[in-house]
Amino acid sequence: MENQKTISEEGLEAYKTAGKIAVEVREWSKNLIKPKSKVLDIAEKIEAKILENEGAGLAFPVNTCINDITAHYTPRYNDETVICDSDVVTIDLGVHVDGYIADTAYTLDLSGKYKEMLKANQLALDKAIDLVKPGVSTTKIGEVIQNTLTESGYKPIENLTGHEVEQYDLHAGLSIPNIPISYDQKIVEGMVLAIEPFATDGYGRVIESQLAEIYSLIKKKAVRMRDARILLKKIENRKKLPFADRWFSKDINPMKLSLVLRELVSKDILKAHPVLHEKEKGIVSQFEHTMIVTEDGCEVIT
Ligand code: MN
Ligand code: MN
């Protein structure tokens, strides 16, 4: 791998703008997480708030994960799920400006029982960020995350990782593990990284559920179904950035939309991203920041 990556001036500016919007919306969104509020309303309000900013797009559908639901859960168009007063709620949001992505997440504990877990999780992220600079091995970062969480009596989710981002590419090149897996990969100046430790009082692994609400394009191919063509046309300008089927439930009859999505997945045109939940139904938290690797450290943009 090369020793340096270059980001254009415009790219750098776009990352910072995306980061600024992501921070504003993230902080604003915390007031929405209350008992009795519908997750559908929360997701729609956050997405609308991002889109109020000229030039800003959704890097992926807002994730609203509750308790043991760990990732890839965004509400369905008719989702009636309501936040309860004992829930642990994670909001993961992504903003892009011209394809340059800022990815950030936080957890709120409405039960008051997981203060220590959230504190350890935040500390794990802070310590990981402190380590980031050119030449550092990703194994080292995974080790610090794992140690910080286990010292507090919790576990990282071992099969979820942070990731590099590139223009219109949410999960590019490098992975940042949450355990010391020896990939033997080194951080390089000019990389943009999203680091996202997950903490749990469960087993420390996620498994896939049957349900998927988030999809992304693998490769465009000719299709015959009319609604499939409408859908592919609508996601064209997102390139391969993920989308929610909810976004199109007004343009395509939801029953038909389900069929179309299944068809496109079976043809390897779309990839489904199933909802992930903790293997032993442990409670999960997540904190995430995006950063640009500089000559001697990093600049957190979120
Ligand atoms: Mn994220
Ligand atoms: Mn991420």
Question: What name does CATH use for the topology of the largest domain?
Answer: Creatine Amidinohydrolase
Proportion of helical residues: 25-40%
* Sequence stretches where pLDDT stays below 50 over 5 or more residues: none
Which CATH first-tier class of the largest domain would you pick?
Answer: Alpha Beta
- What is the overall silhouette? globular
User: SS-based structural class?
Assistant: alpha+beta
CATH superfamily label of the largest domain: Creatinase/methionine aminopeptidase superfamily
For the largest sheet, list the strands in their spatial order: 7-6-8-14-15
**Main beta sheet:** 5 strands, antiparallel
Beta-strand content estimate? 25-35%
Gyration radius (Cα, Å) is 19 Å
Mean pLDDT value? 96
Order of helices and strands: HHEEEEHHEEEEEEHEHEEEE
Beta strands, count: 15
- Which ligands are bound? manganese (II) ion
Q: Tell me the domain tally.
A: 2
| C-alpha termini separation | 27 Å
Count of separate DSSP helical elements: 6
> In the CATH classification, which architecture of the largest domain applies?
Alpha-Beta Complex
Account of the protein in words:
The chain has 302 residues and is of the alpha+beta class. The chain folds into two domains: 9-208 and 280-300, Creatine Amidinohydrolase, CATH 3.90.230.10; 214-275, Arc Repressor Mutant, subunit A (Orthogonal Bundle). Helix content is 29%, strand content 30%. It is built from six helices and 15 strands. It has helices at residues 9-29, 39-51, 115-131, 138-151, 226-235, 254-266; strands spanning 56-66, 69-71, 88-97, 100-109, 155-156, 161-166, 169-177, 192-195, 198-200, 206-217, 243-244, 270-278, 284-286, 289-293, 298-300. The strands form four sheets. The protein has a five-stranded antiparallel β-sheet. The protein has a four-stranded antiparallel β-sheet with strand order 2-12-10-11. Strand 6 (161-166) and strand 7 (169-177) form a beta hairpin. Helix 1 (9-29) runs antiparallel to helix 2 and helix 3 (115-131) runs antiparallel to helix 4. The radius of gyration is 19 Å and the shape is globular. The two termini are 27 Å apart. The relative contact order is 0.19. The mean pLDDT is 96. The protein binds manganese (II) ion (MN) (2 copies). The site of one manganese (II) ion has 5 residues, from loops.
